[in-house]
Amino acid sequence: MARRVAAVDFLVDEVERRDLTDVVLVGHSWGGIPVVAAAERLRARLARVDFFSAFIPRAGESMADAMGPEVGAFLRTSIESAPDRTISVDFASFQASLMPGEPEKLQRLVFGQLVPQPGGYMLDALDAVDVPGLGVPVGYVLAADDRALAAPGAELAARAGVEPVLVPGGHEALLTAPDRVADALLGL
């Protein structure tokens, strides 16, 4: 189960409160983690689970762990030193990893919408992960030029038991090429 209770519980509670069925859960980036955990609890209500350039962890692996020792140590130190235990990204890192090659005006627009993320999201891990064992169809769409993933996209898709469908663009292609991403997700 997930130790990141708030994010997972929110997804599960919304689906159950609305009594939804034939649900398609889609996770992007870190959002792959709560989608994996929520899918375990919602499997009877799901039509499928899809990922777009999303992190799919191994059991016991946090996002900070997956980023490697140097980045993981930086994340832990940053979170521990923040009074509210959140983590933010600076503009230069955002430009280089999340929206490289995009016009600076667009980068600044998107960057201006960001809010600090609870640090626990980067440090918590799922106790068990079995995406192929969910018993529902699974798909993975990968931005071909994604530089922000914690592992190669093909490896992450393999953890979900599928081959990735490639779309042009970087990590935030859902904002820069939404039609292509949507078409790829709908085509899974």
Account of the 3D structure:
The protein has helices spanning 5-17, 32-42, 63-66, 69-81, 91-98, 104-111, 120-123, 153-159, 173-176, 178-186; strands at residues 23-29, 46-54, 86-87, 117-118, 138-143, 165-167. It is 43% helix and 15% strand. The chain contains 10 helices and 6 strands; from the N terminus they run H-E-H-E-H-H-E-H-H-E-H-E-H-E-H-H. Helix 1 crosses helix 2 (32-42). It is an alpha/beta fold.
Assembly category: single chain
Number of strands: 6
Q: How many H/I helices?
A: 10
Our estimate of the beta-strand percent is 15-25%
Radius of gyration: 16 Å
Main pleated-sheet profile: 4 strands, parallel
Distance between the termini: 27 Å
Instruction: Determine the mean pLDDT.
Output: 93
Order of helices and strands: HEHEHHEHHEHEHEHH
Point out poorly predicted stretches. Answer: none
Q: In which range does the helix fraction lie?
A: 40-55%
Secondary structure category: alpha/beta
How would you sum up the global shape? globular
Strand order of the largest sheet: 1-2-5-6
